[in-house]
Structures are given as structure tokens and as C-alpha cells.
Amino acid sequence: MKKPIKANLHWTEVDELAIHILGLPEDSDNAVIEEALADKFEISHDSFTDIVSLLLPLAMRGRGMVGAYASFAVIEKNGDAMALVKMEVDPDDQQNYK
Known about the structure:
Layout: H1 11-22, H2 30-41, H3 45-55, E1 61-63, E2 68-77, E3 80-88
Antiparallel strand pairs: 1-2, 2-3
């Protein structure tokens, strides 16, 4: 079996995604996020990060002005699209490009 790709994410990206999924205020600190993840999903912040890191490479891919990326949880904010979590991908890999 092929080893899964794991994205290298910064904790702030994971926090933004958790805040969005959990419906928390944007200025929620790590303790609030950790508690909400435990209450809703019965997982730690580290486990949530691991899950997001493994799912992100499976997300829909797109091309931006600067390169190609896989993004997770793209939402509309003030009329602009915003990726809460994204990673660069090989622009020559044609898999799932919009």
C-alpha cells in the first residue's frame, strides 16, 4: 500500500479551520479550541491536526496566480474567497485541477 501524503501545516492554519468548524469566535485561544474539540469530537488538538494534515492532500486542487495548491475549507468572506488551510502542489500534476 502506498504511504499517505501528510501536509506540513502551521498551527495557526489548523486553529482557523477548527474555529470555523466549531463556530467559535475568531479570537478564541488555544485552550478554548482544545476544549471545544474535546467536547464535540472527543479528540485533542494534536489528533485534529493529524487528521487535517492527512485529508488536505486529498482536497480539490486549483491554480492561483503564484502556483498550484490544494485547499481545504474555502469560504466566502467579505465577497472574497479564502482558504483556511492550503498547501502547494506540483503544478505539473493534473489531478483534480479546476
